[in-house]
Design a protein that fits this description.
Layout (H helix, E strand, L loop, with lengths): L3 H18 L12 E5 L18 H13 L3 E2 L14 E8 L3 H12 L4 E5 L18 H4 L6 H9 L3 E5 L12 H19 L5 E3 L7 H10 L3 E7 L12 E5 L6 H10 L7
Bound molecules: zinc ion.
Protein backbone atom coordinates (compact mmCIF):
# COMPACT_ATOMS: atom_id res chain seq x y z
CA UNK A 1 0.00 0.00 0.00
CA UNK A 2 1.29 3.48 -0.92
CA UNK A 3 1.67 5.69 2.08
CA UNK A 4 0.45 9.30 1.87
CA UNK A 5 4.09 10.45 2.28
CA UNK A 6 5.23 8.42 -0.71
CA UNK A 7 2.30 9.62 -2.80
CA UNK A 8 3.10 13.21 -1.84
CA UNK A 9 6.75 12.78 -2.76
CA UNK A 10 5.83 11.24 -6.12
CA UNK A 11 3.56 14.15 -6.94
CA UNK A 12 6.26 16.64 -5.95
CA UNK A 13 8.82 14.82 -8.14
CA UNK A 14 6.41 14.83 -11.07
CA UNK A 15 5.74 18.56 -10.63
CA UNK A 16 9.45 19.28 -10.43
CA UNK A 17 10.18 17.27 -13.59
CA UNK A 18 7.31 19.00 -15.39
CA UNK A 19 8.65 22.40 -14.45
CA UNK A 20 12.28 21.51 -15.22
CA UNK A 21 11.66 19.93 -18.61
CA UNK A 22 8.27 21.37 -19.62
CA UNK A 23 7.73 18.20 -21.65
CA UNK A 24 4.01 18.95 -21.90
CA UNK A 25 4.55 22.13 -23.87
CA UNK A 26 3.60 21.81 -27.57
CA UNK A 27 6.50 22.08 -30.03
CA UNK A 28 7.12 25.48 -31.61
CA UNK A 29 5.97 25.11 -35.25
CA UNK A 30 8.53 23.22 -37.32
CA UNK A 31 8.38 25.79 -40.11
CA UNK A 32 10.63 27.95 -37.93
CA UNK A 33 14.36 27.21 -38.19
CA UNK A 34 16.24 26.13 -35.08
CA UNK A 35 19.52 28.01 -34.60
CA UNK A 36 21.68 25.91 -32.29
CA UNK A 37 24.50 27.33 -30.18
CA UNK A 38 27.61 25.26 -29.53
CA UNK A 39 31.10 26.10 -28.29
CA UNK A 40 33.27 22.97 -28.01
CA UNK A 41 32.88 19.36 -29.11
CA UNK A 42 35.19 17.50 -26.76
CA UNK A 43 35.23 15.29 -23.69
CA UNK A 44 34.46 16.81 -20.32
CA UNK A 45 37.31 17.91 -18.08
CA UNK A 46 36.47 16.63 -14.61
CA UNK A 47 36.36 19.27 -11.91
CA UNK A 48 36.09 22.24 -14.25
CA UNK A 49 33.27 24.77 -14.47
CA UNK A 50 32.37 24.85 -18.15
CA UNK A 51 31.53 21.29 -19.10
CA UNK A 52 28.14 22.45 -20.29
CA UNK A 53 30.01 24.18 -23.12
CA UNK A 54 31.74 20.86 -23.96
CA UNK A 55 29.50 18.53 -25.92
CA UNK A 56 31.19 15.11 -25.98
CA UNK A 57 31.87 13.91 -29.57
CA UNK A 58 29.62 10.84 -29.26
CA UNK A 59 26.74 13.07 -28.05
CA UNK A 60 27.31 15.49 -30.93
CA UNK A 61 27.29 12.54 -33.33
CA UNK A 62 23.93 11.39 -31.93
CA UNK A 63 22.52 14.90 -32.32
CA UNK A 64 23.62 15.37 -35.93
CA UNK A 65 22.49 11.84 -36.77
CA UNK A 66 19.05 12.64 -35.26
CA UNK A 67 18.81 15.85 -37.31
CA UNK A 68 19.69 13.93 -40.47
CA UNK A 69 17.21 11.15 -39.67
CA UNK A 70 14.45 13.72 -39.10
CA UNK A 71 15.31 15.26 -42.49
CA UNK A 72 16.36 18.68 -41.26
CA UNK A 73 17.82 20.99 -43.91
CA UNK A 74 21.19 22.28 -42.71
CA UNK A 75 21.54 26.03 -43.22
CA UNK A 76 24.36 28.50 -42.84
CA UNK A 77 23.41 31.58 -40.82
CA UNK A 78 23.42 33.65 -44.02
CA UNK A 79 20.60 31.44 -45.33
CA UNK A 80 18.29 32.00 -42.35
CA UNK A 81 16.62 34.98 -43.95
CA UNK A 82 16.27 33.39 -47.38
CA UNK A 83 12.66 33.48 -48.48
CA UNK A 84 11.71 29.87 -47.94
CA UNK A 85 14.34 27.32 -46.98
CA UNK A 86 12.96 23.75 -46.96
CA UNK A 87 11.62 22.92 -43.49
CA UNK A 88 12.34 21.67 -40.93
CA UNK A 89 15.66 23.49 -40.95
CA UNK A 90 18.54 23.83 -38.55
CA UNK A 91 21.53 26.14 -38.34
CA UNK A 92 24.42 24.89 -36.22
CA UNK A 93 26.56 27.72 -34.86
CA UNK A 94 29.87 27.45 -33.01
CA UNK A 95 31.14 30.41 -31.00
CA UNK A 96 34.70 31.62 -30.42
CA UNK A 97 36.87 29.27 -32.52
CA UNK A 98 37.96 26.22 -30.53
CA UNK A 99 40.32 23.78 -32.25
CA UNK A 100 38.00 20.82 -31.62
CA UNK A 101 35.56 22.36 -34.10
CA UNK A 102 38.02 21.12 -36.74
CA UNK A 103 39.28 18.00 -34.97
CA UNK A 104 35.92 16.63 -33.81
CA UNK A 105 32.86 18.53 -35.02
CA UNK A 106 33.89 18.74 -38.67
CA UNK A 107 34.39 15.01 -39.22
CA UNK A 108 30.94 14.34 -37.76
CA UNK A 109 29.38 17.01 -39.96
CA UNK A 110 31.17 15.42 -42.94
CA UNK A 111 29.79 12.00 -42.06
CA UNK A 112 26.19 13.29 -42.08
CA UNK A 113 26.61 15.95 -44.79
CA UNK A 114 25.88 18.72 -42.31
CA UNK A 115 27.23 22.23 -42.22
CA UNK A 116 27.83 24.94 -39.64
CA UNK A 117 28.59 28.59 -39.00
CA UNK A 118 31.64 29.60 -37.00
CA UNK A 119 31.50 32.85 -35.01
CA UNK A 120 35.21 33.39 -34.87
CA UNK A 121 37.04 35.77 -32.55
CA UNK A 122 39.77 37.45 -34.58
CA UNK A 123 42.47 37.49 -31.88
CA UNK A 124 42.12 34.08 -30.32
CA UNK A 125 45.40 33.70 -28.49
CA UNK A 126 46.12 34.95 -24.97
CA UNK A 127 43.54 35.88 -22.41
CA UNK A 128 40.83 37.12 -24.75
CA UNK A 129 38.01 35.50 -22.82
CA UNK A 130 39.41 36.05 -19.36
CA UNK A 131 38.51 39.58 -18.45
CA UNK A 132 34.77 39.67 -19.09
CA UNK A 133 31.78 38.68 -17.06
CA UNK A 134 29.04 36.27 -18.06
CA UNK A 135 29.49 32.80 -19.39
CA UNK A 136 33.24 32.58 -19.84
CA UNK A 137 34.88 34.71 -17.23
CA UNK A 138 38.12 32.93 -16.33
CA UNK A 139 41.25 31.28 -17.65
CA UNK A 140 39.66 27.87 -18.09
CA UNK A 141 38.38 28.80 -21.53
CA UNK A 142 41.30 31.08 -22.38
CA UNK A 143 43.58 28.06 -22.09
CA UNK A 144 41.50 25.83 -24.39
CA UNK A 145 43.24 25.27 -27.74
CA UNK A 146 41.93 27.60 -30.45
CA UNK A 147 41.93 27.33 -34.21
CA UNK A 148 44.94 28.81 -35.98
CA UNK A 149 44.28 30.84 -39.12
CA UNK A 150 45.60 27.89 -41.14
CA UNK A 151 43.06 25.60 -39.48
CA UNK A 152 40.28 28.08 -40.19
CA UNK A 153 41.29 27.95 -43.87
CA UNK A 154 41.13 24.16 -43.66
CA UNK A 155 37.56 24.34 -42.33
CA UNK A 156 36.52 26.81 -45.02
CA UNK A 157 38.05 24.62 -47.74
CA UNK A 158 35.62 21.81 -46.85
CA UNK A 159 32.70 23.99 -47.97
CA UNK A 160 30.86 23.00 -44.80
CA UNK A 161 31.69 26.10 -42.78
CA UNK A 162 30.68 29.73 -43.03
CA UNK A 163 32.42 32.42 -41.00
CA UNK A 164 30.62 34.94 -38.84
CA UNK A 165 31.96 37.95 -36.93
CA UNK A 166 32.34 37.73 -33.13
CA UNK A 167 34.49 40.86 -32.56
CA UNK A 168 38.26 41.20 -32.47
CA UNK A 169 38.84 40.58 -28.77
CA UNK A 170 35.59 38.99 -27.55
CA UNK A 171 34.68 42.35 -26.09
CA UNK A 172 31.85 43.01 -23.68
CA UNK A 173 30.25 45.61 -25.94
CA UNK A 174 28.33 47.35 -23.17
CA UNK A 175 31.56 48.04 -21.23
CA UNK A 176 33.55 49.78 -23.97
CA UNK A 177 33.21 53.13 -25.74
CA UNK A 178 30.88 53.56 -28.70
CA UNK A 179 33.88 54.04 -30.95
CA UNK A 180 35.57 50.85 -29.72
CA UNK A 181 32.32 48.88 -30.00
CA UNK A 182 31.89 50.01 -33.59
CA UNK A 183 35.46 49.00 -34.38
CA UNK A 184 35.10 45.60 -32.66
CA UNK A 185 31.93 44.85 -34.63
CA UNK A 186 33.19 46.08 -37.99
CA UNK A 187 36.80 44.88 -37.97
CA UNK A 188 36.14 41.20 -38.75
CA UNK A 189 34.67 42.10 -42.14
CA UNK A 190 37.89 43.58 -43.43
CA UNK A 191 40.14 41.31 -41.38
CA UNK A 192 38.53 38.06 -42.54
CA UNK A 193 38.54 39.31 -46.12
CA UNK A 194 42.32 39.75 -45.87
CA UNK A 195 43.05 36.55 -43.96
CA UNK A 196 40.52 34.16 -45.44
CA UNK A 197 39.15 35.80 -48.55
CA UNK A 198 35.58 35.94 -47.20
CA UNK A 199 33.41 38.63 -45.68
CA UNK A 200 31.40 37.26 -42.73
CA UNK A 201 27.69 37.74 -43.53
CA UNK A 202 26.39 37.56 -39.95
CA UNK A 203 27.49 38.45 -36.41
CA UNK A 204 27.24 37.09 -32.84
CA UNK A 205 27.38 39.36 -29.78
CA UNK A 206 30.13 38.16 -27.37
CA UNK A 207 28.58 36.76 -24.17
CA UNK A 208 25.25 37.59 -25.80
CA UNK A 209 25.59 41.07 -24.28
CA UNK A 210 24.19 43.86 -26.46
CA UNK A 211 21.99 46.94 -26.50
CA UNK A 212 19.80 48.35 -29.30
CA UNK A 213 22.71 50.56 -30.43
CA UNK A 214 24.85 47.47 -31.03
CA UNK A 215 22.14 46.04 -33.30
CA UNK A 216 22.31 49.25 -35.32
CA UNK A 217 26.11 49.06 -35.44
CA UNK A 218 25.93 45.48 -36.76
CA UNK A 219 23.50 46.62 -39.45
CA UNK A 220 25.64 49.65 -40.36
CA UNK A 221 28.72 47.43 -40.55
CA UNK A 222 26.92 45.49 -43.28
CA UNK A 223 25.96 42.28 -41.48
CA UNK A 224 22.71 40.72 -42.70
CA UNK A 225 21.77 39.43 -39.26
CA UNK A 226 23.06 38.86 -35.73
CA UNK A 227 22.50 36.06 -33.24
CA UNK A 228 22.12 36.38 -29.47
CA UNK A 229 22.22 33.89 -26.59
CA UNK A 230 18.56 34.53 -25.79
CA UNK A 231 17.09 31.02 -25.62
CA UNK A 232 14.34 30.28 -28.10
CA UNK A 233 13.30 29.56 -31.66
CA UNK A 234 13.50 32.39 -34.16
CA UNK A 235 10.34 33.74 -35.72
CA UNK A 236 9.64 33.20 -39.37
CA UNK A 237 10.37 35.90 -40.38
CA UNK A 238 12.35 36.92 -37.25
CA UNK A 239 11.09 39.82 -35.14
CA UNK A 240 14.44 41.51 -35.69
CA UNK A 241 17.19 40.06 -37.90
CA UNK A 242 19.71 41.51 -35.42
CA UNK A 243 18.27 39.67 -32.41
CA UNK A 244 17.97 36.07 -33.52
CA UNK A 245 17.58 33.77 -30.49
CA UNK A 246 19.40 30.46 -30.31
CA UNK A 247 18.80 27.04 -28.83
CA UNK A 248 21.56 26.43 -26.27
CA UNK A 249 22.97 22.94 -26.56
CA UNK A 250 24.31 21.77 -23.22
CA UNK A 251 27.11 19.26 -22.92
CA UNK A 252 25.48 17.98 -19.75
CA UNK A 253 22.22 16.70 -21.26
CA UNK A 254 21.56 13.53 -23.19
CA UNK A 255 19.30 13.09 -26.19
CA UNK A 256 16.02 13.65 -24.27
CA UNK A 257 17.24 17.14 -23.30
CA UNK A 258 18.39 17.80 -26.87
CA UNK A 259 15.04 16.77 -28.35
CA UNK A 260 13.13 18.90 -25.82
CA UNK A 261 15.25 21.90 -26.73
CA UNK A 262 14.66 21.26 -30.43
CA UNK A 263 10.91 21.22 -29.82
CA UNK A 264 10.56 24.50 -27.98
CA UNK A 265 13.94 26.21 -28.03
CA UNK A 266 14.42 25.70 -24.29
CA UNK A 267 14.85 22.75 -22.00
CA UNK A 268 12.28 23.89 -19.47
CA UNK A 269 10.29 27.08 -19.20
CA UNK A 270 13.17 29.49 -18.90
CA UNK A 271 16.55 28.19 -20.14
ZN1 LIG B 1 31.84 33.91 -27.45
Amino acid sequence: MITPLLAGLSILTLLWLSWRYAWWRPATPWNRPRVLMYHMVCCHRPGTRFNKLRVPPDEFRKQVSWLRRKEFTFLHASELLATSPPMPAVCLTFDDGYRDNLLEADRILAEFEGKATLYLVTEREGSWSSKKKAHHPDDELASEPKLSDEEVRELLATGRWELGGHTTTHANLSKISTEDARREILAARQDFAERFGVIPPTFAYPFGIYEPRHCRMAEEAGYLAAVTVEPGVMGSPPLSPYEIPRVKISGKEGMPGFVLRMRGGKRGLSK
